[in-house]
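User: Can you recover a sequence for this backbone? Please restate the input before giving your answer.

Assistant: Of course. Working from this structure:
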């Protein structure tokens, strides 16, 4: 540890001695490491982190499979048959987007709404902040109208008052009773689902077209696999169920089936190869930055040739010299990584403001512990990459030729009135004491 501290102190002194070189090297590395950190933050938030639901690996998105579309809307009567006859899911939930006219609370306004089955929030493992979710008996035609509201709507219209439960909302001319408030961090990324202020039971909607087995009306579904059931088993089960419905209702379901997609794959969509390609591209940017800094170190090594030769003459081994030079390189890399982290945070904020809709799970992209570890690992690797070649070159220089060149230079300096001998004796005594 004592030797390591000496290397660190000496490395810091050498970097401070050449501020111009240090600034250029750190900025070059910061750009490369910052770009890698920013893109990895996106990859981490979108691809690597699990979905923010209870046991997300058991969640599956479901669609109707038709001749022209593999992910078509689901007819509500078919969905009810799926719920009743499947053997693979502990629960299935349906949803469709809509907009309602809200009156009686200031100026009339159009609020985004989501029709959901009573099982929707339980399937995802989402619990209301206050109140409760819908009951199965409330998800039926003729049941008393009830509504769940978002936390934002709760704060905007009721000032987050706990007395909101039991209050009435007039939506499309019908009075709905508030039974619960959905957490502010809830966000479901799925086809036809959008952030909503209000949620109502889908089973209460008695539109004749919605009850027709031949139409989907923009409804999709999500399900939770039973413990121990694999995706392949569920897929085979639902395929058999789809064939059974096609036989039972040939006029409506002939040529149709059921499409299952793991929910995370459904959320991420086709952006996975694009993000991985982008991560590879910024990796090459960092490699170019490492090459540039290595060239700077090689150019600077000329001025340190005599210093390293004298250290070798005093008994410093090749490994000792390589370790000292690598320590300086790692210090440069860590400084570049710290500045790169700041650039990544700034760049992420700007990018997420511009592309929130184009990027799935954009609200989950941020700098977390995994990103910090990635930055440190990239910085250390970069320091080794750009520092190893100059360190090996310097440590393998011809000792006798270097000292002879230093002697000739010393004679010239002595003729100009400098006491070269005294100056180097002092430096040698310092190095001998340290080594």
């Amino acid at each position: 540890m004592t030797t390591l501290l000496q290397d660190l102190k000496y490395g810091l002194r050498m970097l401070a001695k050449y501020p111009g070189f240090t600034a250029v090297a750190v900025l070059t590395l910061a750009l490369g490491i910052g770009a890698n950190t920013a893109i990895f933050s996106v990859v981490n938030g979108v691809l690597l982190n699990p979905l923010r639901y209870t046991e997300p690996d058991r969640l599956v998105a479901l669609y109707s499979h038709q001749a022209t579309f593999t992910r078509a809307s689901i007819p509500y009567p078919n969905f009810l048959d799926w719920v009743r006859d499947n053997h693979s899911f502990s629960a299935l939930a349906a949803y469709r987007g809509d907009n309602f006219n809200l009156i009686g609370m200031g100026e009339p306004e159009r609020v985004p709404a989501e029709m959901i089955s009573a099982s929707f929030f339980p399937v995802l493992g989402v619990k209301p902040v206050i109140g409760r979710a819908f009951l199965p008996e409330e998800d039926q035609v003729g049941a008393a109208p009830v509504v769940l509201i978002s936390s934002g709507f709760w704060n905007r219209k009721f000032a987050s008052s706990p007395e909101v439960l039991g209050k009435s909302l007039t939506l499309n001319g019908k009075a709905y009773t508030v039974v619960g408030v959905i957490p502010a961090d809830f966000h479901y990324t799925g086809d036809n689902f959008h952030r909503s202020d209000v949620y109502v039971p889908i089973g209460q909607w008695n539109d004749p077209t919605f009850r027709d087995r031949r139409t989907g009306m923009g409804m999709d579904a999500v399900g939770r696999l039973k413990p121990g059931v694999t995706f392949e088993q569920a897929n085979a089960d639902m395929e058999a169920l789809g064939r059974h419905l096609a036989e039972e209702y040939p006029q409506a379901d002939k040529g149709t089936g059921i499409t299952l997609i793991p929910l995370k794959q459904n959320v991420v969509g086709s952006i996975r190869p694009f993000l991985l390609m982008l991560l590879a591209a910024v990796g090459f940017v960092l490699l170019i930055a490492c090459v540039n800094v290595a060239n700077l170190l090689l150019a600077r090594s000329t001025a340190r040739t005599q210093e390293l030769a004298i250290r070798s003459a005093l008994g410093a081994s090749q490994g000792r010299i390589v370790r000292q030079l690598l320590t300086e390189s790692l210090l440069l890399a860590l400084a570049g990584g710290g500045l790169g982290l700041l650039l990544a945070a700034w760049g992420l904020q700007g990018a997420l403001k511009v592309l929130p809709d184009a990027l799935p799970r954009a609200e989950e992209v941020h700098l977390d512990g995994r990103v910090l570890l990635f930055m440190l690992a990239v910085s250390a690797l970069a320091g080794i990459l750009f520092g190893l070649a100059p360190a090996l070159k310097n440590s393998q220089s011809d000792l006798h030729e270097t000292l002879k060149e230093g002697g000739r230079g010393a004679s010239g300096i002595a003729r100009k009135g400098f006491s070269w001998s005294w100056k180097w004796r002092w430096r040698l005594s310092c190095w001998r004491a340290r080594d």
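That completes the design. The longest strand covers residues 89-103.
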